[in-house]
Design goal:
Two copies of one chain form a homodimer. Chain A is α/β, with parallel strands linked by helices and 341 residues long. Chain A has helices at 12-22, 37-41, 56-67, 79-85, 87-91, 102-109, 111-120, 132-140, 167-183, 187-190, 249-259, 290-294, 300-308, and strands at 3-6, 28-32, 44-47, 71-74, 96-97, 128-129, 148-152, 162-164, 198-202, 206-215, 221-233, 236-243, 264-272, 277-283, 324-337. Chain A folds into three domains: 3-98, Rossmann fold, CATH 3.40.50.20; 127-202, ATP-grasp fold, A domain (Dna Ligase, domain 1); 206-327, 2-Layer Sandwich (D-amino Acid Aminotransferase, Chain A, domain 1).
Chain lengths: 341, 341
């Protein structure tokens, strides 16, 4: 069993988890469009064309055939719909895509579609608007109040998120964010609906949680892992504690059965001061939360490999210990030494 | 030789570097006002009162006496002037403060004083203003142009930095930042000059560099380490490459002789497209750049311990290999497991 992690970026720990899971019974390959230290930790790596390049898919297929790669797992949002759309191309070569259905990847990458999807299945949503006129109407009729957040509709992490506290800030920051979106790589996604590329959301006061909803390779619900977020850094969970899933389980099953994602779904939640749970964002891949689950005794990479090998769900791999606090430590690491002649 | 690292925060690598340097010949103690994983990596640790608490200094002195600690090194900006102001209290107990003179700590913690200090010794400065009226005058007479940055005068890292691209953004973001400063812990420093708590700076186009200027314990210039910054994360250097110090050396010596800091000074520079070097910020402590120097063959912790032991400068410890690229890898780490009864 050989595995390819595409868009591996800087998630070295994912390469390590998969290497440990394969335990020499197969290789972990990693790909990315630029060289990173993470790639060097894989058994083998390859630099790919840009995700949007016409040659991206055929390049990956050729590489998989050449290296006898059995399955692909992607670690980057933008990569997911591109792979998913081409599922049949991979399947023809007996390469399993451990990537969600195309529709699910589009919903997760689009905060406005995420809002509509979750609202549609009855999950608490903070009031959200896709035009500034609607947001202003909601402000003036008292439906929402400051502070409100402005976010790139197709954004990732904490890039380009602004908090507006009054009308002047709303006007100026809305224009600013709209301009910034079209100055950055977000313009590719945002071109789909340029006038509606900023989502405006009522801020929620409360405690942030992260849950991961695990479906099997037939996209059926398996289990959920929950964490209380204690500190964030650049939009990623930096310190967290594993907690009981009880109050998140119904929400998780509801999302699972409607989204029909494959493997892990990384979900951001808020519990407000009344104990009401809101779901804010979803990423249908291993996310920044997963290490907190892994160090608490879970091994999703091993379970995915077992499934790929036709084995059943092994609950020993999916039992999370609650009350485990963890952080992301910084480890200074040499990438490259130039020869000094 | 026992060393105490105060305000150790999450710089685990600094604890490790000092433990390696002492190599069992003494202990590394770490202190902080809240528990972190870093503290647990020290030989012993202690939770202190808040830095601004009346009991902070007497608490540290008592702890040092009790644990036979010979020297204190602080890793946090806010801590530096508080310690420095009380140098005589520590010295009376034969505890060496490896902390710069009080004046230097105040200059480094205050971006407006940094600007005035550096301008005063003839180092290139980007045009900077401490009132919005002066910034607007400079904009209208063409002395500066958008984009311009607004930063908390007493801020740290990338917290609260806004980029303004036009008059409307300047007005709104200036008011916003001023309000935010007084909503956060920055209010303590900013209370010193509330009306002048935001610094407005012309943005510089170019390449960012980091240099570290090493003075000995008599505050005399020793050497400089230089790095090209390749990626930033939350205001800290995340990927960097060591480079030749030649074009930074005169600037470094100039700063060293005038600031008279002790041990390391962490300095942010920009080289614009004409090759002109600007100095933006200074921190008189080990900063986020140091790991990039350390992995390139330098050992400042060992040199500081040697100096504390009365030994001479050992140039073998201070030779930096250029062309070494490094990154800060993420290492998921358990902090604490609650008992689940």
């Amino acid at each position: 069993m050989n595995i390819l992690l595409t868009s591996a970026g800087r998630r070295t720990y994912m390469v390590e988890y998969f290497k440990t899971a394969l335990n020499g019974s197969g290789k972990v390959f990693a790909s990315n469009s630029v060289l990173t230290h993470t790639l060097l930790q894989a058994d083998e790596y390859v630099l790919t064309p840009n995700i949007y390049d016409d040659q991206y898919i055929s390049f990956l297929v050729e590489y998989c055939k050449q290296k006898s790669i059995n399955a692909i797992i992607s670690l980057f949002d933008i990569d997911l719909p591109v792979l998913s759309k081409n599922r049949s191309v991979f399947e023809k070569e007996n390469i399993k895509l451990v990537v969600s259905n195309y529709e699910a990847t589009l919903i997760c990458n689009d905060k406005w579609e995420t809002y509509n999807f979750l609202k549609g299945i009855g999950i608490n949503q903070t009031p959200s608007f896709i035009t500034i006129a609607e947001a202003k109407a909601a402000l003036s009729n008292g439906e929402i109040s400051y502070p409100i957040y402005l976010k790139p509709r197709w954004g990732m992490g904490s890039i380009g998120i602004y908090k507006a506290e009054n009308d002047a800030e709303l006007d100026v920051l809305y224009k600013k964010l709209h301009r910034e979106i079209f100055d950055t790589y977000l313009k590719y996604e945002s071109a789909a609906d340029a006038e509606k590329s900023v989502i405006i959301q009522q801020a929620i006061k409360g405690q942030e949680y992260g849950i991961e909803i695990l479906n099997d390779l037939d996209c059926k619900y398996v289990t959920t892992f929950a964490k209380k977020k204690i500190a964030m850094r650049s939009g990623e969970t930096d310190i967290a504690e594993t907690v009981d899933i009880k109050e998140f389980e119904d929400i998780a099953k509801n999302i699972s059965v409607h989204l029909k994602h494959m493997a892990l779904l990384d979900v951001d939640c808020f519990k407000n001061n009344d104990g009401k749970i809101f779901v804010l964002e979803m990423n249908c891949r291993f996310g920044g939360q997963y290490p907190f689950t892994h160090v608490a005794g879970v091994d999703v990479p091993q379970q995915i490999i077992n499934w790929l090998n036709g084995k059943d769900t092994n609950w020993d791999l999916l039992h999370i210990q609650t009350g485990v606090s963890a952080c992301k430590e910084i480890l200074p690491t040499i990438i490259n030494k130039k020869l000094n002649i």
